[in-house]
Amino acid sequence: MTGPQKVVLLACGSYNPPTNLHLRMFELARDYLHRTTNFHVIAGLISPVHDKYGKEGLAGSNDRCQMVRLALTSSNWIHLSDWETRQEEWTPTREVLQHHQRLIRSHLYHLRLSNDPKKMDLMDSAVNGNLDGTVKRQRMDNTVPWLSHLTTSLASVPVTGGGGGRHMQHEPVTVKLLCGADLLESFGKPGVWKEEDIETIIGKFGLVVITREGSNPYKFIYESDTLSRLQRNIHIVTEWITNEVSSTRVRRALKRGESVKYLLQDPVIDFIYKHVLYDTHNKPSVNCS
C-alpha cells in the first residue's frame, strides 16, 4: 500500500515586497490539502519574477530575494527559489514549473542511486569523470539549498505499510502552482496566457487557488470550457478570515510614511528602510518599540 501523494507548492509573483498574506497562503493551502485530499505538502517555494518582467515600480531581484529570505526566517518549510531571477530573460510560469519539477526529479534520482553505490559510481564515472557522487550531490544542495530540506521532509512523510525515508525516495513528488483567485481569472483574459500554457499548468501540475469570501471561482470555472474540463486539477481554498493586504497598498503606505508594521515581517520592514526602497527617502523607520 502507498502513502499520501507528495506535493511541493510553488508560488510565482513579484513579491514587491513579500507580505504576511503571501506567507499565509501557503499555510491555508497546506491545511486544506491535508484535510481534504490525499496530498501531503512537503515544501513550499516562493519564486520571485525576473527584473525584465517589466512591472512599474519593481524593486531589483536581489532586493526582492533578500526580502523573501528575511520574511521566511520563521518558517521551517517554505523556501526561496531564486532560479527565475537568475535567468537571462523573464520566464513563463509553465517553464518555471517544469524546471522545478525536473530539478526535484533529478534530485530524487540521485538519492535513489546513492542507496546503490555501484550504480552511483558507474553513473558518475560516465557523466562526471571521476567526480564522487556524494560530492556532486553536495554541490547541488549547496547551489539549491531547499533541496536538502526536501530530503528531510520526504523522510518524515508517513507511509502506509512502513518503508521509511528510503522508500519515500522512490515515490514521485508533484509541483503544484499556488496562486490567488486573480490569477485563475486571468486565464480567461484574451492575450494574457497561451492556451498550451494553461493546459500544461493545470493539466500536468495543478492549481491550488486561495480565494476570499464573496468571490465565486466556481462560476468562473463553469464559464470557461478549458477550466471546466481541467477542474479536477483545480483546488479552491476559501480564506474565511478576510485579509485585503496587497503589495500595492503596502508600497503606497511606505511612500506616504505610514506604518506597515504587522503587514510585513519586521526584518523586511527594516530592510526596506535601510536600503531606501519604495521611495522611503528620509522616512523614519516604523519598526520601533
Structural class: alpha/beta
Fraction of residues in helices? 40-55%
User: Which value, in Å, is the CA radius of gyration?
Assistant: 20 Å
Helices and strands, in order, run as EHEHEHHHHHEHHEHHEHH
**Oligomeric status:** single chain
Average pLDDT reading:
85
The count of β-strands is 6
Helix run count: 13
Q: Biggest β-sheet: count, sense, barrel?
A: 6 strands, parallel
Keywords:
289 residues; alpha/beta; 6-stranded parallel β-sheet; single chain
Q: What does it look like?
A:
This protein has 289 residues and is an alpha/beta fold. Helix content is 47%, strand content 15%. It has 13 helices and 6 strands. A 6-stranded parallel sheet has the order 3-2-1-4-5-6, sandwiched between helices.
